[in-house]
Amino acid sequence: MPPKRKSTTESQIAAKTAKKGGPPPDAKYSVNDTVMCKYGNVFYEAKILAIDPDDGYFIHYQGWNKRYDGFVGFTESNTRFKTYDQDEIKKIKEQVSKEKSATPKANKPKATPKTKERSRNTSTISEDDVKPQEKVVGSKPRISSRTAEKQKPDFGSSRTPKSKKEENSYNGNIVTPTAKKRTDVTIKLESGTKLIGPDLAEMLTDEQEMITRRYRLPRTPAEKTVYNLFENYCKHHNTQLTKMDKMMDLSKAKNLVEPTHINRVDCCAGLINMFEICVTSVLIYPFEKEHIKTIIENETEGEDENRLLRLSKFLGVTYLLRMLSRIHEIIEKTDIPGQNAKVVMEVCYDLARYLGDHLEKYFVADSYYVQPASDYIRRNSNLS
């Protein structure tokens, strides 16, 4: 069972805030204020426990377990916070009840599975509470680390499906594996978690929250990149990435009988090739697409001898974890021979174990993510 992470406390935040001279002067809310905070498409009653100069408001959802406590950034609060007003809540609930009774039964949507009734002391309002039609929803999100294996972060979905031509455009003349259906690009952590382990799977769950809710981006270029990880992994096994310039194709390698030192290099070369092909089509969140596209455009100006290597030398290890967490599905879509696929899986497992043992060298949460410019957030936040 993985060790529990240290939780952030109000006292620690208060000490940090005092050290930095207090909260920002333009903060709209104060400690102990009660607000309606949007989580997903629903507004819930929440209390501001502390204010961090860097991370924003530290909130607690009334009636929920403390494990759901978390930060809401100052910029993010403009869309996620609403002033708490009992009269307004009562009005909204009455209007919802009135609209429901006036709606013909034939037009009602199909019933959804019953969910556990929420605590009565928690107020909820839909995201459309300022529009003519209101909703009140009572189920709470499941974001605990205990449910990391059950979560299915969707890296590829967006509101406008891409054509095959558009998906392949990121990689020039390299044809990316395109999915037959949109649901095919949805990551599935069930099998991947067994390979990367619960601690690394929890990192992916936390990253999903960081990108889709807090609008942060992994720093690029990363302090330690995917390519650095493969280099050090091979050195750990007393070999070097001597074939990286050839970008070996795993489907054409016929000699991968077992993960020996020489074949380990073959596998690593093929995995980086696979990473370069998959990353832009199925491994990034919609909020990241503009950022990644900008990197590619900047790096491909003029001649680029190592064109396929560009992203593995820019992106951090969480991008590789996204691939490893769904490696079964990716391999099934390729023409890699069965025996080679078995060896690749063994190397993937060993690579994940190596990363877990040296994680502090490749991932430090405080410096791994950065907040993009406000205009970038404005353009892309609706895609999350």
TrEMBL record:
Its main location: nucleus. It is found in: Nucleus. GO terms for cellular component: NuA4 histone acetyltransferase complex; Rpd3S complex. PANTHER family: MORTALITY FACTOR 4-LIKE PROTEIN, MSL COMPLEX SUBUNIT 3. One of its GO terms (biological process) is regulation of DNA-templated transcription. It comes from Bursaphelenchus okinawaensis. Residues 196-368 form the MRG domain. This is MRG domain-containing protein. Residues 1-28, 95-175 are annotated as: Disordered. It comes from the Eukaryota.
